[in-house]
């Protein structure tokens, strides 16, 4: 039976470490508050003008390609997941393709906008391409440069303290080895509460969704015949070009959906939580991971957490964590690894992989 295996994995985080105390210089917060509510001690920020989401993704991809033992020209499809792209368009897939220098083969590049679950969605897509025999070396990248678009004021503190920059990548290949590879992926979404965790402007919404949902928000639209909707001075003056989040709402849904979607995958594969060698959850918040661990009855050595060092790196968090776990020898040949994510949309998903 043809399945998809991870042939190579890599991650990259920028050098600059930003501690919780560093953030107290620009907003009213404290190391104690951040650690107590999120578990985060520090995060990394990319270097302005020198690093971008796509360049960080490229660094991670180079490592994954080398570890897969292939040449960059062997890649036959690129999937790039991010919510913080270099450009509004084109997406990061083609920028990574250029940065990697694989322009001659003219392979396809797909961009995924599924926020925290982007990597799991990307894995599922790659899995279908590989199982169908269409591609033999798919490069899947999750990368984020959050630090360029956060609100560094007390008003933005509930979001800003959580996020960090980084990238992770895998090379996916077909395998016929018995029992190995991606056993299943499960994807879900529910747009009912899209605005609860969102980056709304710039955008083409024109206030439509807010009106429909009865949300009383003034976007400052004037009576100009053309334009002024995507981004206007009112939005900038009122700091509306930053992400917003109803934290407690997100928390409650996350702790419900994580266990649900993990159990869905396990049940389909005829397995139980006890069979998991390593759960690599999206690093949303250490408290969410701990809640999920407890709910699933998992030991500490069955769950990989690194949010303490990097914060929440959205689409990059799972591949960074998986790469670190693999490098540390905590994920080995034959292990059953479960990936699970929940985030903005809301979208969520899981994957079971036999290494
Ligand atoms: N520093 C100090 N005080 C803060 C900060 C901060 N960084 N942020 C908010 N506060 C204040 C609030 O203003 C509020 O003050 P008030 O009581 O005077 O009004 C108080 O702290 C409590 O605010 P809450 O939002 O109720 O705090 P909560 O305990 O819910 O913690 C948090 C906030 C950490 C965001 C939490 O709700 C959470 O983790 N939610 C899950 C969301 C999440 O993990 N998001 C990650 C991205 S989405 C994803 O990846 C799934």
Would you spell out the secondary-structure blueprint of this structure?
Elements: E1 3-12, E2 16-19, H1 20-23, H2 31-38, E3 42-45, H3 53-68, E4 77-81, H4 92-100, E5 108-112, H5 118-131, E6 138-144, H6 157-160, E7 166-175, E8 181-189, E9 197-198, H7 208-212, H8 233-237, E10 244-245, H9 247-268, E11 278-281, H10 286-296, H11 307-310, H12 317-327, E12 336-343, E13 347-354
Helix pairs in contact: 3-4, 9-10
Bound molecules: acetyl coenzyme *A (ACO).
Structure description:
- This protein is of the alpha/beta class.
- It starts with a strand and ends with a strand.
- Strands 1-7-6-4-5 form a five-stranded mixed beta sheet, sandwiched between helices. A four-stranded mixed beta sheet has the order 8-13-12-11, sandwiched between helices. The protein has a two-stranded antiparallel ribbon with strand order 2-3.
- The radius of gyration is 20 Å and the shape is globular.
- 32% of the residues lie in helices and 22% in strands.
- Helix 4 links the parallel strand 4 and strand 5 (108-112).
- It has two domains: 3-175, 3-Layer(aba) Sandwich (Peroxisomal Thiolase, Chain A, domain 1); 181-193 and 245-354, 3-Layer(aba) Sandwich (Peroxisomal Thiolase, Chain A, domain 1).
- The chain binds acetyl coenzyme *A.
- The site of acetyl coenzyme *A (ACO) has 23 residues, from helix 2, helix 6, helix 9 and strand 12.
């Amino acid at each position: 039976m043809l399945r998809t295996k991870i042939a190579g994995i890599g991650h990259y985080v920028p050098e600059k470490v930003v501690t919780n105390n560093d953030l107290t210089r620009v907003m009213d917060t404290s190391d104690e508050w951040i650690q107590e509510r999120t578990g985060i001690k520090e995060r990394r920020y990319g270097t302005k003008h020198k690093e971008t989401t796509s360049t960080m993704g490229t660094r991670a991809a180079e490592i994954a390609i080398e570890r897969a033992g292939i040449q960059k020209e062997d890649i036959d499809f690129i999937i790039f997941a991010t919510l913080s792209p270099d450009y509004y368009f084109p997406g990061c897939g083609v920028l990574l393709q250029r940065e990697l220098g694989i322009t001659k083969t003219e392979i396809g590049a797909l961009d995924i906008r599924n926020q925290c679950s982007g990597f799991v969605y990307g894995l599922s897509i790659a899995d279908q391409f590989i199982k169908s025999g269409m591609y033999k070396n798919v490069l899947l990248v999750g990368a984020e440069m959050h630090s360029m678009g956060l609100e560094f004021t007390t008003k933005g503190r509930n979001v800003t303290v959580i996020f960090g920059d980084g990238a992770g990548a895998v090379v996916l290949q077909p395998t016929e080895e018995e029992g190995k590879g991606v056993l299943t992926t499960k994807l879900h979404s529910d747009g009912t509460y899209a605005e609860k965790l969102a980056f709304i402007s710039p955008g083409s919404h024109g206030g439509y969704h807010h009106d429909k949902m009865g949300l009383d928000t003034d976007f400052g639209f004037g009576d100009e015949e053309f334009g002024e909707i995507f981004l206007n001075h009112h939005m900038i003056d009122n700091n509306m070009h930053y992400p917003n989040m109803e934290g407690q709402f997100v928390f409650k849904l996350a702790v419900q959906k994580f266990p649900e979607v993990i159990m869905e995958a396990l049940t389909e594969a005829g397995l139980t939580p006890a069979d998991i060698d390593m759960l690599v959850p999206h690093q949303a918040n250490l408290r969410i991971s701990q809640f999920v661990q407890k709910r699933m009855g998992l030991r500490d050595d069955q769950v990989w957490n690194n949010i303490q060092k990097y914060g929440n790196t959205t689409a990059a968090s799972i591949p960074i964590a998986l790469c670190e776990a693999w490098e540390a020898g905590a994920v080995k040949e034959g292990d059953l690894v479960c990936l699970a994510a929940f985030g903005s949309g809301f979208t969520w998903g899981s994957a079971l992989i036999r290494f």
